[in-house]
């Protein structure tokens, strides 16, 4: 029988936090600003677009401790069990400005200043993994941060001017201690806080996830919360109880074979990008225009499919490539061509006790060609107006088969 814990545990700027009460739809932004008075993290849009709320979240992966920029305005506090949250206050905790902050000052990267903490955190995340970034790398890292004052050029110059060595950063120096602390928090238990509609559940593993879903068929499943977060912050929709699954490493696997790629439903856009760019390079440009970097770090492939939006970016690509979807419940797995999953607007072929487990994308043989195009009102961080994906199979000079898939053209992709 799976053990159960009734306390949420995580680190905040290196300090242990334990919560025995947490509203399931409380955002990390509200927790930071209202409950912890960490007001450096700002609320601009409350929908994951402007980046003023950017923080870093560290989590243990099979490859070690990884920090990523995320939008605190749509990330739920309940999803943070076993994580390390780093806010802008931590950067100058010793009294002196962090090198990233100092560069922003020296290169006049701030005017009104409201967006500045978010830019600092995005640049901090970039600097930690790429100490001397190119302009394209800087621009990609800042896709999810908006500034109406500077015109961005001073911010780009600030990013280029940071010369300090990340190896001397306190976050690096504390890596072993943080890793040990987060490892100690992973006890293999199901986490449950609250009851009824006010409950939040973090299953112990995929089998426990299936059991939790069978026990709570009306629950909302939350992976990256890049869509679900807006149901709360914009539409004020009651969605409890919530089952959080971003911590399930078993759903974040990527398996490559000669026959194709299998992506676990919890794989984020960021995690999937290297294999997508290598195996299906024609999809890479569209992939890099899904939200900003914070959204790509949070959002998952399985969530984008399960949500069933007609303007979701991945379904047309997956349909054109001939992908297959695997669902799972306590009764076992069920597979289908991914296009069969979408029935009508807001309606998918998924029972209340089923969840999306994985997506298999077959390899693209030499006699097939693929392309995908996304049309938007602005280049970066914009929802799809129309997205087209196309796969052609050739027999010599003759088109033997054509698969076209569209998003934004009907009630379903």
Order of adjacent strands in the largest pleated sheet: 1-7-8-10-9
Average residue-wise pLDDT: 96
Count of β-strands: 20
Structural class determined from secondary elements: alpha+beta
**Number of spatially distinct domains:** 2
| Proportion of residues in β-strands | 25-35%
Work out the helicity level: 25-40%
**Principal-axes shape call:** globular
Q: Predict the CATH topology of the largest domain.
A: Ubiquitin-like (UB roll)
- CATH hierarchy class name of the largest domain: Alpha Beta
Compute the number of helices.
Answer: 14
CATH superfamily grouping of the largest domain: Beta-grasp domain
Plain-language structure description:
The structure is a single chain. The chain has 413 residues and is of the alpha+beta class. It folds into two domains: 1-186, Roll (Ubiquitin-like (UB roll)), CATH 3.10.20; 252-407, 2-Layer Sandwich (Uridine Diphospho-n-acetylenolpyruvylglucosamine Reductase, domain 3), CATH 3.30.465. Helices cover 27% and strands 26% of the residues. The chain has 14 helices and 20 strands. The longest helix has 14 residues, at 116-129. The two termini are 41 Å apart. The mean pLDDT is 96.
Furnish the topology, listing elements before pairings.
Blueprint: E1 4-5, E2 8-12, E3 15-19, H1 28-35, E4 54-61, E5 64-71, E6 84-86, H2 99-106, H3 116-129, H4 135-141, H5 153-161, H6 170-173, H7 175-185, E7 190-193, E8 200-202, H8 206-215, E9 220-222, H9 228-233, E10 242-244, E11 254-257, E12 260-264, H10 269-279, H11 284-287, H12 293-298, H13 301-307, H14 314-320, E13 324-329, E14 332-337, E15 342-344, E16 347-348, E17 355-362, E18 368-375, E19 386-395, E20 398-407
Parallel strand pairs: 1-7, 2-6, 8-10, 9-10
Antiparallel strand pairs: 2-3, 4-5, 4-6, 7-8, 11-12, 12-17, 13-14, 13-17, 15-16, 18-19, 19-20
Helix pairs in contact: 2-5
